[in-house]
Amino acid sequence: MTDLVPRQPDATPAIPAARDAATLAVLAAMEQAAEQHLDAIRPHNTKRGYENDWNLWAEFHDWLAQQTGHRLALTDVTKGTLVGFVVWLDTIKLAAPTSIDRRITGVTVTARGLGVEVPKRATEAARKALKPLKHDPERMARGRGKAAAVTPEQLRQMNAAVADGLAGLRDRALWLMAFGIAGRSAEVAELHAESIVHVSQGLEVHVPAVKGRPPRDVVVSYGKNADTCPVRAWLTWKAAAGVTAGPAFLPIDVWGHLGNRALSPEAVREIIARNAERAGVAVRLTGHSMRSGFITTSRKAGKREEKIRAQSGHAENSPAFWGYIREADKWTDAASEDIGL
Length: 341
Fold this sequence. Notes:
The chain is mainly alpha-helical.
């Protein structure tokens, strides 16, 4: 019976023994091993997302340096910089609140991985600044909805409003290349200059594999309109930037200096959306607008389905592809045409 009587806790809790140097070294090694293990099992898409978040954090610092005349280190992750980042993403980048929330996480995780002590009050303040944005229906609607397919007329409209200088040359070459290869934003971001070969008829482009999709080789013909010709736009950008190998499209800072890393897919989408907005295009254009726009434009020009699919890389039974084809064909031999009405 005595075994059934619960034991009373000790009156005074045990005081942990002081850790010696050998114990501290083992604990430190275990901490490092844990971080390495967690990084190894983190999904590739998550890692790429965090990389994109950090690239945006660097872009924010470029903008901040231009505004203040002083450059902060990227490792200055404080209450002030994180809240400023939220405001910048909301007012300058017009990002959706859900995207901003993910960016906060990406920057925080990356900074801590670099050994930066990010104060808890900094992340709490950033999400406090974000909270009212999540109650704004217009902000929450950002980035939603089906992207409109771009038309050749809208491409000409964007060309007429493109910015001067090196950034303008890059932007025009980027969106016209995206259109010419019917490329996804991730594919455009991964293009390499040495894989874009100039031949007499135009360009032979190797589109690399992304997100498990197979690579493909496509051709891009010269356009009849010199201002919106993907071939001429690429050759002009390539010559101006001196791009001969490595990423085809590079970041450019506020002072016009070229970066040496590839643009992220998010940056590709933002370049297209920003230029469409600057040009006053009536519909919302995104990175996918170039891909869907090529398919519908090519189909309206009478191109065969198998040729279009070879360019876009769609599977033969892709519902999305056949949806674009139906959209392009809906006024061709319409059922209501010439029926005696």
